[in-house]
Amino acid sequence: MLVLDTLDFISSSPQKKNIYLYFKQMIENNRCQEAYKELNNFYGVSDKLATFFIRDVLLLNPDIELEIEDYKIVIPIDTWVAKEAKKLGCDDKDIQAVKECLIKMCLEQQLYPPKVAAGLWKKGYRATNEPCLS
């Protein structure tokens, strides 16, 4: 279904033939929320995948500036990030509250939230998947 949705999407308009460029231009034009909603319309895509995609577009294009409220849709929260966020004091069961806590911490420390999100994911992944040394 995801493949069919993607094919429908790219065949619906010449501007959509390159999905990456299409969404990059939306994000550059301060339409990040709209891009997020449109990504969520694809079968099987929800908050986590949409935020991963948007986060990675931003990491590839660090010159794109976001509004502060848009940072919520560039921090994917999965098990690994949630565990790392808890260690930092963002201990909440609500994903949006964890995102807000991480964003607040990033901005207080003058850190770029998409980079921190990527770093937390990698740290959590490595901590979970490294072999135990005895």
Offer a concise description of the structure:
The chain is mainly alpha-helical and 134 residues long.
Largest sheet: none
Give the termini separation.
45 Å
Structural class: mainly alpha
Order of helices and strands: HHHHHHH
Proportion of residues in helical segments = 55-70%
Average pLDDT value? 88
Radius of gyration from the alpha-carbon trace, in angstroms: 16 Å
Low-pLDDT runs of 5+ residues are none
Report the oligomer: single chain
| Proportion of residues in β-strands | under 5%
Total number of β-strand segments?
A: 0
How many domain regions? 2
What keyword list fits this structure?
about 130 residues; mainly alpha; 7 helices; globular
Q: Could you characterize the architecture of this molecule?
A:
By secondary structure, this protein is mainly alpha-helical. It has 2 domains: about 1-65, no CATH class; about 75-134, no CATH class. Helices cover about 60% and strands about 0% of the residues. It has 7 helices and no strands. The chain has helices spanning about 1-10, 20-30, 30-40, 45-60, 80-85, 95-110, 115-130. Helix 3 (about 30-40) crosses helix 4. The longest helix is centred in the C-terminal third of the chain and has 17 residues, at about 115-130. The protein is globular. About 25% of the residues are buried. The mean pLDDT is about 90.
Question: What is the fold's blueprint, element by element?
Answer:
Elements: H1 2-11, H2 19-28, H3 32-40, H4 47-60, H5 79-87, H6 95-108, H7 113-129
Helix pairs in contact: 2-3, 3-4, 4-7, 5-7
